[in-house]
Amino acid sequence: MTEKITNLDHMSANPLIPEVQEAMISAIRNDYGNPSSQHKLGDKAAEAMEKARESVARLINAPSAKDVVFTSGGTESINLAVKGIAWAKQDKGRHIVTSNIEHNAVLRSLRRLKMMDYKVSSVPVDGYGRVDPVDVAGAIKDDTVLVTIMHSNNEIGTIQPIQEIARITRERGVILHTDAVDSVGVVPVDVQTLGADLVSFASNTFYGPTGSGGLYVRRGTKIWPLLDGGVQEHNKRAGTENLIGIVGMGAAAEIAVRDMSARTAHVVKLKNKLLKELPHYIDEYIVNGHPEKSLPNLVSVSVKYIEGESVVLMLDDENIAVSTRSACAAGALQASHVLLSIGRDFADAQGTLVITLGEDNTEQDVTRFLAALKETVKTLREISPLYEKKAAQA
Amino acid sequence: MTEKITNLDHMSANPLIPEVQEAMISAIRNDYGNPSSQHKLGDKAAEAMEKARESVARLINAPSAKDVVFTSGGTESINLAVKGIAWAKQDKGRHIVTSNIEHNAVLRSLRRLKMMDYKVSSVPVDGYGRVDPVDVAGAIKDDTVLVTIMHSNNEIGTIQPIQEIARITRERGVILHTDAVDSVGVVPVDVQTLGADLVSFASNTFYGPTGSGGLYVRRGTKIWPLLDGGVQEHNKRAGTENLIGIVGMGAAAEIAVRDMSARTAHVVKLKNKLLKELPHYIDEYIVNGHPEKSLPNLVSVSVKYIEGESVVLMLDDENIAVSTRSACAAGALQASHVLLSIGRDFADAQGTLVITLGEDNTEQDVTRFLAALKETVKTLREISPLYEKKAAQA
After folding, report:
1. B6-13+260-393: what fold?
2. Domain boundaries, chain B
3. A318 contact residues in B (CB cutoff 8 A)
4. Which residues of B are catalytic?
5. Partner-chain residue, chosen from B36, B246, B323, that has the shortest CB–CB distance to A328
6. What does R_g of chain B's alpha carbons equal in angstroms?
7. What are the start-end ranges of the H helices in B89-205?
8. R_g of chain A computed on alpha carbons
9. Is A222 within 8 Å of chain B by CB?
10. In chain B, what residues touch A117 (CB-CB under 8 Å)?
11. How far apart are CA A276 and CA A265, in angstroms?
12. Residues A225, A95: Cα–Cα separation, whole Å
């Protein structure tokens, strides 16, 4: 991490905190070997891996560490959950229920399944981006095998009523997956009270390395592996494990358990400061997402008459990192389906900035960002045909 | 790596060589961020990743670094290749040709595809474990969309005539995938002269970290991603990349290019010593695999009247690490399909040891192993009912 850069895009680039770095470096130096080996060379690897699994299980309160499947990250966890359940249940039915604001990993997994003769129903969200459990209940049909609704949204931060949805799916005998990639390690996620059958998460969300994630699979849930081969991960995910990454994720999970409330208090303070002071710096904007049921570290603002992409580039010149939306979609150019779903028009959607705060941020960072944003918005509006038109109308 | 252990199971537990350790540690300390980020925080990550991609491309002589898709390891590469082509070509046909001695990642991917209404033909191998290209040609049908034959076998080391097979598949307009997980970084694999459309490999084979691998995809080859989501890896593999692992794989690839001939000379010397001296230590054994077209670092020996599993455990007590077969299958208890395919009977298959040598091995390691093997075999045969029966018959 270059020190001079103010990181307000933690969702795409959380730093590796020192304890995680040290755990990974120690694993590299000790060079544990392959956890599946038949001899002593693998013993330490297996031990380190199971220790990490226990730590991760504690973070999500899994009944047993065995319920945690290690993957190569959030995207793989989601693909495994969605496709693995759809395939395993294909004889029971081929209908899946989802929401209009899911992450691309869910959306495109479902698009893929449609190419394999699955049907998908998508429920709407309200202006805050919340799903109504009643809509989910209404969308479930006799041949529905899976409901997949995200825990929190990566663009607007809104947290969904997963517990209520889980009550419905349980009653209807349908499997529930929740993409909790942006929640686990940020807000308390207790898989037992949550009631979802599958919960996806990623290490980088809680200051662990990229390329490591996991999927909670409720015991007894029949799922096809996405990766077939060896017998690793209780036959749910073949392939020699990324031990260094897993050790890093384990260390990060331990610290997340310890520090979550302090971290939350810290970022909420900064988020509140940002939202409170924002009107002193810019006008004509909309704050997206639910005012309370939302991630404590995320602020989404649609700024009128400008392009978010331009703001990102101009702030980048000032060494301030923010995002328009998740880095995964950075290569894609269409307007955010999430913002359109909550009622933003195309122009406002394009003018949206996502700020994700982290434990390394300070009040100065927020002030610095607000000042730079003010200048940037002013500059951009001066050259904006939309802003001119609006001024002329006034 | 605990110093006292003699590692003769490099295939399951290659050590991380110092240069690779340092590259990974430096990546951890510099904490590059997310290569897909929209701002500077991601620039260094993207740079480090593309440098690694260039190094890996050089190792396999890919026409362009863009032809290399990073994955979470050999198993994912194989699953992506086999399933990704089968799905992408489903409208053209649903028939796949393979061999009888493939790795579980291929076998079980194909078994999975059979559950999705694909058909599979499997060609036999000769006593050395070689596929006859004529058999492959004979197995290709009008609806064949994929031939998948391994480059080298992980249990007996035999190398397949992939170039000849590629000539056939090209002529017939069928995609060819070769699982080169145990070849790339050990023997020269030039994807351009080889002629396969897809080549799977894994970082750990050439002293890189576990959890990192790649798939060469010939330009223009239509393939469905296994992981849907973001636009990473040229839309062939979604998910934030395992940057630390990729940096390690890149460093390992660079060193493999530099050191491959020296490494080969070293392990061949040890392999020859082992094979030459073996008859002075034990009798009644069969050396498996092709005498020339074989991996330079692998020795497979079926020792009569004993169980390989017991030898592994007893040698482990002596701090010598060997394997019965690949660690991936260590949890499975059936006899090796590879050994049965080359004509070993069930008992001999169960009495098989796989020794894989590495650059850290010495002549003393070989001598130490042979002496310990002699004692172990003697002890085990004394309690073997098979050996007793044979003695009585003599």
Report:
1. Aspartate Aminotransferase, domain 1 (3.90.1150)
2. 6-13+260-393, 18-255
3. none
4. 328
5. B36
6. 22
7. 104-114, 133-139, 162-172, 191-194
8. 22
9. no
10. none
11. 16
12. 19
Q: Which two tokens stand for residue B140?
A: 């290709």
Positive or negative CA dihedral for B218, B224, B227, B229?
positive
One digit per residue, pLDDT tens: chain B, 394 residues?
445 789 999 998 889 999 999 999 999 998 777 777 778 878 888 999 999 999 999 999 999 999 999 999 999 999 999 999 999 999 999 999 999 999 999 999 999 999 999 999 999 999 999 999 999 999 999 999 999 999 999 999 999 999 999 999 999 999 999 999 999 999 999 999 999 999 999 999 999 999 999 999 999 999 999 999 998 998 999 999 999 999 999 999 999 999 999 999 999 999 999 999 999 999 999 999 999 999 999 999 999 999 999 999 999 999 999 998 754 444 456 789 999 999 999 999 999 999 999 999 999 999 999 999 999 999 999 998 878 787 787 6
Beta bridge partners of B121: B97
Architecture of domain A18-255: 3-Layer(aba) Sandwich (3.40)
Q: Predicted ipTM?
A: 0.94
CA distance B118 to chain A (A): 13
Find, in chain A, the residue whose alpha carbon is nearest to that of B110. Answer: A228
Say whether B226 and A330 touch across the interface (CB within 8 A): no
- Measure CA of the first residue to CA of the last residue in chain A; give whole Å: 46
Indicate if the alpha-carbon torsion angle A358, A364, A365, A370 is positive or negative.
positive
Looking at the complex, does the CB of residue B324 fall below 8 Å from at least one CB of chain A? yes
CB A254 within 8 A of CB A55: yes
